[in-house]
Each structure stands twice: as structure tokens, then as C-alpha cells.
Amino acid sequence: MSSFNLSVCICTRNRPSDLKNALNSLYLSTKQVFEVIVSDDSTNNETMNLVKSFPNVKYVKGPKKGLGSNRNNALKYVNGTHVLFIDDDVVLGEKFVETIFSNILQFNEKGKQIFTGIENNRGHLVIPNDTNFLGYQNVRYNDFSNLRTIVINSTIFPKNLFNYVSFDEQLIYGYDEVDIAKNAIKLGYKIIICKDAVNYHFPSIENRDYYSPFKEASRIYVTYKHYYYLEKKYLYAFAFLIVSRMHNLYHLIRKEGINGVISFIRTLNLTRNYIRNFKKKVLVNN
């Protein structure tokens, strides 16, 4: 087990109290982590001052461009063989790392496996669910031997994965875990579930208003991108865009009344920009 070294990356923004709980939980792990990296997108110095009280934690300034970009920023400083990303409002389960690594030992250490545990979200157990046509993660797996999704706060990745793929930096919030999982599968990686490995999530209300406008745009963008570019289902992708926009408008009007039209236009514009920018990137790379 000594040949496996776990780097824990915590991306944070203006949540020093939650972050303190997350950092304290790492010291209670029955298997010691190799290193801890905090990438800070905060708008003040509270987080930086807090991390100073944890001498073994590496503090780095975040890019302040959203969660996808912040995760990639943390990855630049990783020296371990494996990587775990937890949000700043997550508490590491005492036996989580030990349980995952005991499963890793059953496989070739140079293999292409991603190990996902589960999340206890204030008493509700979150397990990987597949995505439906609209991209929502609400489809139960009948067979966990062919997973296509992960629980990001309870997933340990081999570091070598990130030699080939990175988090989409247009994703300010939401669906980055779907995106990275499907890209990894495309590269031949296999997702393995460890139901006994549990982390604890205590969702903070801090930043919810900041992140909220981006989540639906992220879902539409990520789902379209995978239909069109990964699966090459071009007609499927265009049909999805039409249906998803109608669904989004209907949902927002029901929720917000006439103001839902304004929210819809904002989501529409964000999605258009995401898709347009990604197409430009594909053209440049080709």
C-alpha cells in the first residue's frame, strides 16, 4: 500500500469555517494522506490566514474563474500517485482512504481504474446515477459493473489520467464530474464502485447564489458536447438542444413566473457561449 500516495485537493471560495472542518477531518483518517492542496478562489484573506494554522497544507491562489479552472489549478501542485477532490464543505470519512486503497490493491497499480465511493449528504446516501436524455443524473444503475458516472466528493483518480484530460474550464459550477467521467471512459478508464467508502457532505449556503446561474447552462453544454463530440450522435445532439431549451423555459416559468424568461435567456446565452468556445477549441486542435 506504500506505493500509493494520495493527494487531496480542496477547491474553496469564501468558506473558511467549512474548510476548517474539512481539513481537521483529514487528520482523523485511518490511512494518512500524502499531501493536501487548497486552491483558494476567495475574495478575501480569511482562507489564506486559516490555512496558515495547518502547516502541512499547501496553499495556492486560485484563478478565480470557476470550479473547473480551480480544480486544474490544484492539479498543477499534485505529487501523489492518486488524487481526491473534495469540496470545502465535505468531511472525510475516517476509513474512506483505507477502504478505497484496499480495493486499489486488487488491481494492477498501473491500471486505468477510477474508484468512486458514496456520499452521505446530511443523512441521504448519494450513489452514482446514470444520466437521462436531458443530462440529469437520476437513472439508477441495474448493474454497477458498467458505471459511466461518479460521486465527485468520494472519487479517487489515478494521477496519470490528468496527463490526457483536464477539467473543462468553462464549467464554473456543475456537471464537471459527468464531463470528466465520460472523458475518462473514452480514454479506456473503468469506474469501480466501493460502497463501503463514505464521505460526508454538509452543503453550505455560501456561494449558492453565485453558482446558481451556471448550473443549468453547464448541464446543457456538457450533455450536448458528449452527444455531438464523444458519441458522434449529431441528430441526437441537435434534438437534445431543442428539447432541453423548451424544458428549461417551461421549468423556469413555472418556478419564477415571467421572470423565468429572463433566467432562460441568461442560460441560453451562457450555453451558446460555452458551445461556441468549445467548437473553436476543437477547430484549433484539429
TrEMBL record:
Residues 7-106 form the Glycosyltransferase 2-like domain. Gene3D superfamilies: Spore Coat Polysaccharide Biosynthesis Protein SpsA, Chain A. The keyword Transferase applies. Pfam families: Glycos_transf_2 (PF00535). Belongs to the glycosyltransferase 2 family. PANTHER family: GLYCOSYLTRANSFERASE, UDP-GLCNAC:BETAGAL BETA-1,3-N-ACETYLGLUCOSAMINYLTRANSFERASE-LIKE PROTEIN 1. This is Glycosyltransferase family 2 protein.
